[in-house]
Amino acid sequence: MSFTDYKIASGQPNSAKPVLFFYCQHSLGMGHLVRALTLAETLAERFKVIFLNGGRFPDNAVAPSGIEIINLPPLGMSDDNQLYSQDGQYSLAEAHVLRRQLILATFTHYQPQIIFIELFPFGRKKFAGELLPLLKATKRCGENRPLVFCSLRDIMVNARKDQTRHDDRARWLVDRYFDGVLVHSDPKFASLEESFKPSKPLKASVYYTGFVLPRGESLEKSIRHQQVLVSAGGGMVGTPLFQVAIKAQRVLWGKLKLPMTLVAGPFLPEADWLELQAQSVTCPGLTLHRHVPNMIHLLASHSISVSQCGYNTVMDILKSGIPALVVPFARGQEDEQTNRAKRLEQLGLLQVVAANELSVAKLVAKIEQLLNFTPDVAALELGGAACTADIIHDLLSSHITHLPIEKQMATGVIYV
After folding, report:
1. What is the pTM of this model?
2. Can you list the domains of the chain with their CATH numbers?
C-alpha cells in the first residue's frame, strides 16, 4: 500500500490567502458533496481552499475553479449501513490507513489556518479514526493552531436508539476540538436545538448562515413548459420512485398528454438504469437522462417537480420556484428528509407524499393537483454561502489580531 494513486498534489503551502482545509465525506448520495463544493467555491474567493473529497467523485461532475481537490481512497455506504472501499485496489482496512496518512500529510504540508469539517461529529462516526488524529494534531499546534469549524445542514437525524448518548459524544467532541458550528439553515425554519439534544448544553458557538443555494445566474427569464421533472439526487436510492413515476406517466399521457423528463442520477445502480431504459422505450412522452450537468435549469423550464427531499434538492426547488411534490427518503433511522418535508409543506412551499404511501394513483392525483399549485414566497435567509465566508473570515481575523505580532507573522497572514 502506497501513495501511488493518492498523493498530495504539487503546490506551494504558502499563499497570499489564508489556507482553508475542507473535509467532505459523501457516502450514500451526492448531496453533501454538492453543498460542500458550493461552499468551497464561495470560500475560494477569500481563502486558498484545499478540498479533501472522501467519496466517489461523479464522472460527469465539474469541480469549481479556484479550489484544489485531493481525492482520498473513496469509501461508500452499502444498503446494510456498512462502509466499503470503492477502490478495488484496497480493502476497507487498507483504505482507512491510507486515508488517515493522507489527511495528516496534507495538514502538515499546507499548514492551514482553518479546518472546515462537514457533519462530523454530529454524524460520520465511522470516520472518527481519521478525523480524531487530525483534530488532535491541531491541538498540538498551540497558539498557532488553526481554527476548527463544523459545517452542518439544516436538520440532523434524530431517531437513533441511543440518541442522547450520540448527542452527548458529539457535544463533548465539539467543545474539546472545535471553535464553532456553522449551521446552513435559517433558525426560523429549523434550529440546531430541535434535532440535537445532549444532556448538557453545547458550549461552542453556533452560527446560522442561511441556506446554501446553488450558484449560478438568475432564472427570472426562464420559460416553463407543461411537463413533469422526476429526479432523486445522485439516484443511488431513487429506483422505487422512478418505477412508480414511469407507471404514472402512462396514465398521465393518456389523460393529459403531459410529457415527463426523468433524470436517473450518476449513482443509480447500472442494472436499475438498464431496466429504466427498457421501460422507457414503450412509455409515451418520457425522456430519460442518466445525468445532467445543471439540474436547476431543467427545474426552471418544467412546470412540476417530483423528487426526494434532500438539502440540495430543496435548494434547487426554492431557487427555481417550481411547484413540487417530494417523496422523502426514509430508511431505518433516517428521518431528516421527512422532517424537512413536513416543515416545507407547512410553509406552503411544496406538497408531500410519504415513501410508504406512494402509489401510481396517488402520484397521478398529486401531479394533477400541482398543475394549479403556486408555492408561497418563503421569508427564509438564502445567502448561506456568502455568509459562511464572512463568518469564517471575521473569526480568523479576530483570532489572528489578538496574537502577538510575532505570532501573527508565524501564521503567514496579517490582518490590518
Report:
1. 0.82
2. 19-212+383-411 (3.40.50.2000), 225-370 (3.40.50.2000)
